[in-house]
Structure formats: C-alpha cells, structure tokens
Amino acid sequence: MGGSLSVEPAAPPVATRNPELSLRRENGQREVFCGLTSIVWLHRRMPDAFFLVVGSRTCAHLIQSAAGVMIFAEPRFGTAILGERDLAGLADANEELDRLVADLLVRRPEIRTLFLVGSCPSEVIKLDLGKAAERLNAQLAGRVRVLNYSGSGIETTFTQGEDQALLAMVPLMPASPPGTEADQLLIVGTLADAVEDRLVDLFHRLGIPRVSSLPPRQSRDLPSIGPGTRVLLAQPFLSATARALTARGGQLITAPYPLGVEGSAAWMTAAAEAFGIPPAQVAAVLDPLVERGRRAVAPHREVLAGKRLFLLPDSQLELSLARFLQRECGMSLVEVGTPYLDRALLEGELALLPPGTPISEGQHLENQLDRVRAARPDLVVCGLGLANPLEAEGIATKWSIELVFSPIHGCDQAGDLAELFARPLRRRELLRFS
Are 364 and 7 in contact (CB under 8 A)? Predict the structure, then answer.
C-alpha cells in the first residue's frame, strides 16, 4: 500500500531555521505503511464508530493483520472490496456502496458514526467518497453520521491517516458558548485511555478545570472550539488538524511533545503557562513526576548511553524520539529522518537537538540504506518492511509502528519508552553469549 515515486538524486543539505542544524530533502522510492493503519487505534478509541474502507483485498488483509483480529470477531472496521468490474468502470460502485452501508447498519445498529475511508484503489478510479457521504447522510436523516477521509498511501505515511480522520471531524465541532472559550484546554491526538486519564488528572491538579479531547471516546461527543480554546497537540503528525482548529479560533500551544520526562514536563508546563498558572504551582505538581520518571529511565540509560542511533523516516515521531533518546538516554544521533517536517509544529523539538544533527526529510530508500550500511549504527528505528533485512545484516532494529500502538506518553511512561529501545540491544547481547 506504500507509494513509489520516481527516483531522483538526493538533494544537498539546506539550512533550517536553527543555523546549527542542516536538512537534507530526499525524494525517491519509499517503504511505508499507508494511512489505513491508523484505523487500528482509532476504532479502539471510539467504540461507537465504524471505519469502512473502500478498497481492495490487499487493504482488507493489511488492516486485519495490523489489528491482530479475525474478521469473524466483528471488529469496528471492514472493507468494501472493489472488484474487477468496479475498477474497470463496468459497475456502479456508488450503488453497491449504498447497499453495503444499508446492510451494515442493519447488522450493527450501535454504530453512531460511519467513516468512509478512501484507499489507493478508490482514488485511482476517482470514486468521490465526499459525495457518497453527503448522499448517505441525507438518506440516514441524522440517525448515523457519515464522514469521509483518505487513508491512501500513494503520497502519505501511516500516521497521516489519523490527521485526516480528525480533520473530517473538525467542521462538526460545536462553537464554544460565548464567555467560556478561554476556560478550555483541548488535547488533540489519540492517547491510551489510561494515559489520557492520568494527564487530565494532572492538568486538573495544575489548575486547569476544563480539559477535552479530540478524538473523543464517543464519536458524537465532540468538544467545542472557538476563540480562546487552547489547543495542545499530543502527536506531532497532526498538521492539517491543527490548522483547521486554529482557523476555527483555537490558540495553538507550541511545545515539545510528551515523550520522555523532559518533553512531557515541557508539554504540561507550556499548557500551564498558557493559562497563567504560577510556576511554583507547576513545580509542586510536576517535580515529583520528573524525579520518578528519571529513576525509571535510569536502568535503560545504562544500556543505551553511548550507542549510535539512526532513525529512518516512517512515523513522524522521529524528531521527538531523537530528542528523548539523545538527551535523556545518552544515545548519539547518526541521522534523524522524518517523512514530513512541519517546522511550525516541531520548532520546540528542533531547538533541543544537538548542534550538527543530520536531519533528512522525505525518503529515498536506497540512499538512506546506503548511509545506514556505511555508518553501521548500534540501533536503527525503521518500518516493519526494513527490519528483517537489516537484522540479517547484523544491525539491531526497532519497529517504528510499535510506538504508535504503545502507551508511551507522559512522565509515567518514560521508563517504558526507554525500555522499548533498550530491549533489542539487550536481546542482541544475550544472543551473543548464548
């Protein structure tokens, strides 16, 4: 489901806003999962929603494998498979889609929101799911809300699926009632329920009483948005959603992301500052968390310190992970790759990377693998498709997709996050002496 672009010579490094960093832009063959993968965590977040992919059997196999469930378990996702007649334009795909949706809603009456998710095949045949959603909304007369977004992997990476799903929800968010806009903190991005509960409790203790989330736990319980609403991104890959929220009056809080102790403390501090909370009150809440988080990271730092790290572009978490692993775990950064670099959202992370850090934006698979082989790093963070070949060459790897399925946000999870990277190095050391 990943795309393949024409191979071009690697671009030379160009200056970033931080004069001590250089950026290499690359464009060529890519190895990434598509945005359909994000359905795996989105459908768990909103149990009253259903994600119907309009795509091929390959799309169906991808999601089922990524989710680790069998289709007879009736998960809250499925695939309307485009057959040869659909792809050849010999059948009316819209008519068939309407029939499938009607059958689905009879069998699953608990569905409150239906997402029609575009794929590579549906985009190739120019199937307009936006018009399909309008037509179905009119037919269902408000009983079920139908939204649409693209999960195609033609030009995107897998985390952008969540960005597109949230973007589809923004126009439906109610406007904040007059006089209450400034009271709300809006956390944007999917978090594990237990992690979110913990972070919301911390914000309450800091003195922020109204905290909402997007996506919500029930798809119809959308938070309000308006002038004065403080928008705090929990994930760095939500560029389109962030811009849509600010267009509706939200005020974006820029900060490092809540990965590791330092990033999590800075993230919560930035929110507290936006609400005018005194530093002493912030310190009283966060200092014990910071101390506990550092103790949890310490045993894993013993394994990671001094090791050389290469992050290939895949999840768009790479800059945040690089900052955490370098500053808190003592790793040396060989290169930090990211599929897309939104400087407005990642300014806080860029400022914390060490001078001279090589950064690459985009993917030219062969060139980047050549640099990996030349550098022979101790650990490579990469996509699932590259891990086994690199392991066969004697290079330890960590799957980047595992990070979006794991509860890694916040000070309390910093030790678990460090352990994810220490584990492959410990395993390699054990195999060496077995």
Answer: yes
Residue 205 covered by a domain: yes
Count of CA atoms in the C-beta half-sphere (13 A) of 289: 27
For 309, 327, 354, the CA distances from 306, given in Å and listed in that order, are 9, 11, 15
Q: Confirm whether 343 is domain-assigned.
A: yes
Q: Are 51 and 112 in contact (CB under 8 A)?
A: no
Burial class (CB in 10 A: 0-12, 13-18, 19+), 11: middle
How many C-beta atoms lie closer than 10 Å to residue 154's C-beta? Answer: 16
Q: What are phi and psi of 341, to 5 degrees?
A: -120, 105
Per-residue pLDDT tens for 203-253? 999 999 999 999 999 999 999 999 889 999 999 999 999 999 999 999 999
Asked whether residue 304 falls in the same domain as residue 229, the answer is: no
Q: What is the CATH number of the domain that holds 220?
A: 3.40.50.1980
Give per-residue pLDDT as tens, 349-393.
Answer: 999 999 999 999 998 889 999 999 999 999 999 988 899 999 999
Q: Assess contact for 158 and 315: CB atoms under 8 A.
A: yes
* Whether 314 and 344 share a structural domain: yes
Residue 330 region, left (φ>0) first, then alpha (ψ -120 to 50), else beta? Answer: left
Number of domains in the chain: 3
First to last CA, the chain: 39
* Same-domain check for residues 429 and 304: yes
Please say whether the beta carbons of 230 and 274 come within 8 A.
yes
Q: How far apart are CA 23 and CA 276, in angstroms?
A: 36
CA 53 to chain centre: 19
Q: What is the pLDDT of residue 338?
A: 93
373, 374, 380, 381 alpha-carbon torsion, rounded to 10° = -90
Range of the domain at 143: 35-152
**Would residue 167 count as lying in a domain?**
no
State CA 138 to chain mean position distance.
32
Residue found by looking up tokens 């149990």 in the block: 47
Residues of the chain under the 70 pLDDT cut: 1-21, 67-74, 83-91, 154-155, 179-182, 433-434
Question: What is the Cα–Cα distance from 150 to 54, expressed in whole angstroms?
Answer: 10
- Region at 189 (left for phi over 0; alpha for psi -120 to 50; beta for the rest): left
Collect all residues with Cβ–Cβ distance below 8 Å to 404 and sequence separation of at least 6. Answer: 38, 41, 158, 159, 315, 317
Domain-terminating residue out of 257, 284, 311: 284
Supply φ then ψ for residue 290, to 5 degrees.
Answer: -60, -45
